User: Fold this.
Amino acid sequence: METFLGIDYPTLWYLVVGLLFSGYAILEGFDYGAGAWHLFFKKDLSRRIAINAIGPLWDANQVWLIIGGGALFAGFPVMYATMLTAMYIPFMLFLMLLVLRSAAIKFRSAEEMKWWRKTWDVIYFTSNILIAFLLGVVLGNILQGFEIGENFSYQGGIFFSFLNPYAIMVGLTTLSIFMTQGAIFLLLKTEGRLHARLTFLLKKGMIFFILSFAFTSFYTLIYLPGVTDNFKANPVFFILPILAFLAVANVPRLVSKKKYAPALVFSSLTMAFLLMLVAFQLYPVLLPSTIDPVHSVTIYNAASSQKSLGIMLTIVLIGAPLLAGYFLFLYKTFHGKVKLDDTSY
Amino acid sequence: MDVEILARIQFAFTIAFHYIYPPLSIGLGLIMVFMEGMYLKTGNKQYEVLTRFWLKIFAITFGIGVATGIIMEFEFGTNWAVYSRYVGDIFGSALAAEGLFAFGLESAFLGILLFGWNRVSPKVHFISTIGVFLGSMFSAVWIVVANSWQQTPAGYHIIGEGFNARAEVTDFWAMVFNPSSVDRIIHVWQGAFLAGAFLVLSVHAYYLLKGRYVEISKKAFKIALSLAAVVSLTQLLSGHSSAEVVAENQPAKLAAMEGHYEERGSADLYLFGWVNDKTQEVTGLKIPGGLSFMIDQDFEAPVTGLNAFPKEDRPGQVNAVFQFYHIMISIGMFLIGLTLYASFLWWRGTLFDKKWLLRIFAFSVLLPQIANQVGWFAAEMGRQPWIVYGHLRTNEGFSQEVSSNQILFSLILFLVVYTLLFLLFMYSLNKKIKQGPYDEAKNALEII
Assistant:
């Protein structure tokens, strides 16, 4: 098997996919999170400011989902196909909600009528909450494993089996971490009374996060057998949960000092460390089979050919700096507090 | 209904709906580059007003295009799992390149394009417009490459058997430049330019008929007409070249496009007609030997007919393929005539005096849209029964584990949400057109 820097190609691609989904979680985390607070703002102007805080950024942030999905399809087509058939209903709902959310952003402020804006506000708020929740639900299902049989065929339940207690727990935790991230982002983008209101809301968000995080962590350790196997085999990786814990603890500290930019960095790091934790705990499995571990989808049996992975790694090496450049320029351009003008939503 | 049919209906519906928007974004993108370029070059404020006006409409088409496009990306996995595993190795790298090179570019610059007027200099704004336009062009490249590979696979080998069979890349560039990609990319680009140009022509023809925004509408009309006139002609060339590739690589598809069953000394070219699949006869107006001439420049040259293929290897809906293909060509010819005549009047200086012509232009926005849709229908239905030509059948490619109820459920969801989306699109498009590029009562003196 071909390697680069001593790491085999499927593992490298696993890292690429992990990086992309971390980027997605961090960036869309504050997008969805900001939207999940939407109905907590009472005034129409506050709601407009909140939408325009992500206005120029959300479309670009969404690129991470598109590239992440593409990377999964490209590098691990078996994982992509099996996961999407197993998670058919949650994914379809997720996609539908994404469409509704985009429509809400575009059309909400296009009319003055009260009923119009109120309807879109409810759609926007609900879709953001459900999108965050469903992403967590899918992650929760992956952690528990699927009934995968021969030829990677999914043999589990069809309609509602994705809504199990553990998945709901991970869903709520994801929602809470996104809401924390979103509130911190909005604090950076707002002033005056809305800013004051957000400091109050952020506290609630952090309590929601810490409670659901603690609960899910204990539940995982107690009820999911084998989650610590990889860590026991490589104790040095215990650094990941420790780092995750430190990042989590650092967020309220920085918030209480009103250092919102570093707080956003640490809440982003929290997500990154937690995802690394999950990635390391699963590795090299992508989708555990609950029928027989032989049928589990792993980065090796799901991977594209060496040749194809090599091509794609080259594409990433060329494309990633370009993408980083675009994003730096975009975020630099829209740095600072929201100012509404005639081009705003 | 069975899973295969439902999955096909769902794919056809979601992709056809999606394809209303990206061509408009590509075409409008190019026209905005012209408009903003003219503004920077001449400093004439009218061009800035035009750019800003069309940017508002672009924002809507782009937004809906992205939202409905993400669904396509995941629908392969949900509904076409076997196909996804089969082509992932090949299709995947095109999709990844699309995301990284094309979509990253267009989406990052979109924010600056839409909201950056007061934050960046006019030059940087213009560069962003170009960035978004190029991004949308590249996007089309990778998507069409992937589809073309399904039509004319190259640079690969097949490993494994049955459900474990997969295509793997052996030569990346042969895969990218497979026999049909270049012709089809150009054809798709030009179809998109026409879609955008005719929207601009239509809206400004409407203004001219109403006597509103006359000065700037004449400018915009001329920009769009120049593009439309050139591209409708070059589209004929690229269409012809594309058809030659089909004749060489997918003879069954070509035969279906012309309803050509029996290989004879000379094959006919129909202007229009109706195919009876049972009697294998076409009733219509034809040029005897025309098809032979188009392919081999010889009225007597034999052309492979459908009967050369076993029944199970031919497209099932010959008449549909025939009709879609001929509607596309008829529209293309009409657009050539329309734009050439309008260009002639422009040269004579009487373009804006002919109300009836402006009326035709006002409605003509639908034509490139229809041509784009039916062209794709002809291409995709003509490829049947294959999902990957010659290798994987459509009835083997869908998700084996998914139930018809799941697909029905999501299909109904799509129908509801997309209907809503389409109504919103039409409503806001109409509103933006009614509002116009600027407030005439207030700003008339300042701008003109």
User: Anything to note?
Assistant: The beta strands of chain A are 3-4, 7-8, 285-287, 297-298. The longest helix of chain A spans residues 192-223. Chain A touches chain B through 69 residues (CB under 8 Å). The longest strand of chain A covers residues 285-287.
